[in-house]
Design goal:
The protein has 430 residues and is an alpha+beta fold. Strands 1-2-5-12-10 form a 5-stranded antiparallel beta sheet, sandwiched between helices. Strands 18-17-22-21-20 form a 5-stranded antiparallel beta sheet. Helix 4 packs antiparallel against helix 5.
């Protein structure tokens, strides 16, 4: 029992489907008296079963009237370190993995509880290969480009540039941990970490995490386990961002294809002649006599077609883009990255993903097919069910139409991006 020591509490309220998304320590709103009672209860539970070793005891709280010891209840004990143990390490300066190994070897703990203190604040975000806009479906593929940004935050990851995210394991890519003297500075560092991170062009929850921690509720520490579900549409809607990315990507594409219009990261686009700002008549892309200048462009955003009109003031737009794979990676909304390419009617991966093309979101097994070729379907109607990553995914019709092509049979194994169903729209006004 001389090895028993409690550290300090962690807050894991931000969850989705009971899976933790953001963790921090100490817990917002926790006073010292409540902390002491909570930690004492954890020690009592460990002693009651003669437990030796690293362990984590979880409690659930009713904080509707603030955090109080009489409104916190024991939930479970995990006889191991948790994924979020780095936030405890950051505020205590303790290496919990080392302690775990020492205790397992029969050694005493290096420090007692009275020798520990809280130093600042720490937050951790779980970076996943998943698509929040499509129900958080796991994503697999190769990480073509990876930059973690600065060195003011701690990254825990088992993957590097060129690595593969496979369908056989949990899709978590990394834990991003930020520390600060106060909660405000820890949050600021975590926001900057997500802003500066570059992971292409595998879809991740990077932008979702950024939007989440920039919300008023998070900044004020007013959180509970149902917050994400209640605000899911706001947190996952990327429609405006996709339009913005298409616009910025098209501008970058136009600029990079015209001499004298260099694209630089996070810089204003200005026509140059011999390295100097040019006259207004130089390079008049989109000029119209007796009409507004405009350029209409068809681009592919992550393989999906988007038609946009380039704004008249495109030369003065501030964009953040980098050339990548015959196109550009464009950052919008703080930490959302989109792969934008010129749309090609044939010979491109994006050309197949028209509005009525139902593609497999990942490798998996078809377990049910609800339609046949020639069937008339309505928007939202169930087409088929795919089993992948130990989950069932229902694919539905995007609009009213007719099943023009069906490439799915029960029991068949399909690969990611495989065309399963092609829906031809019907004109209800005809």
């Amino acid at each position: 029992h001389g090895n028993i020591v409690h550290l300090f509490e962690r807050d894991c309220s931000l969850q989705r489907r009971h899976q933790k998304v953001i963790e921090e320590a100490p817990a917002p709103g926790m006073d010292e008296a409540t902390r002491e009672q909570l930690c004492a209860a954890a020690v009592k539970a460990a002693r009651a079963v003669d437990y030796v070793g690293a362990g984590t005891i979880e409690f659930i709280a009713d904080a509707s009237e603030g955090l109080r010891a009489d409104r916190i209840w024991f939930m479970e004990m995990n006889t191991r370190l948790q994924v979020e143990h780095p936030v405890t390490e950051e505020i205590t300066g303790v290496d919990l993995v080392e302690w775990q190994l020492r205790v397992a070897s029969g050694e005493a703990l290096p420090l007692k509880q009275k020798e520990l203190s809280i130093n600042g604040w720490a937050m951790e975000a779980r970076l996943y290969a998943e698509d929040p806009g499509r129900g958080f479906l796991p994503v697999i593929g190769k990480i073509e480009h990876l930059r973690w940004g600065g060195d003011r935050w701690r990254i825990e990851s088992g993957i590097e540039e060129g690595g593969e995210v496979s369908p056989f394991y949990d899709p978590m890519i990394a834990k991003i941990v930020a520390h600060g003297d106060e909660r405000y500075w820890a949050l600021d560092n975590l926001q900057r970490a997500l802003e500066e991170m570059e992971l292409w062009h595998l879809k991740t929850n990077q932008g979702f995490l950024y939007r989440l921690i920039c919300s008023d509720a998070f900044e004020e520490g007013d959180l509970d386990t149902g917050y994400i579900e209640r605000n899911l549409d706001t947190l996952t809607d990327e429609s405006e961002l996709v339009t913005m990315a298409a616009e910025h990507g098209a501008i970058a594409q136009i600029v990079s294809s015209h001499e004298g219009y260099p694209v630089t990261n996070n810089a204003y686009i200005t026509p140059l002649v011999d390295g100097q700002p040019s006259a207004p008549w130089d390079g008049q892309i989109g000029f119209r006599l007796n009409g507004n200048a405009h350029v209409v462009a068809d681009v592919g955003v992550h393989g999906r077609r988007k038609s946009i009109s380039i704004p008249v003031d495109w030369k003065s737009r501030k964009i953040n883009s980098k050339p990548f794979e015959d196109g550009h990676m464009v950052r919008v909304g703080g930490a959302f990255w989109y792969h934008v390419q010129a749309w090609r009617t044939s010979g491109s991966a994006g050309s197949q993903a028209s509005d009525g093309a139902i593609l497999s979101p990942m490798p998996g097994k078809i377990i049910a097919v609800e339609v046949a070729a020639g069937d008339t379907v309505t928007k939202g109607q169930k087409l088929l069910t795919l089993e992948a990553m130990k989950m069932e995914h229902t694919l539905t019709a995007p609009f009213d139409g007719v099943v023009e092509e069906l490439n799915a049979t029960p029991g068949a194994q399909v690969q990611v991006e495989a065309l399963l169903v092609q829906i031809k729209a019907v004109d209800n006004d005809a």
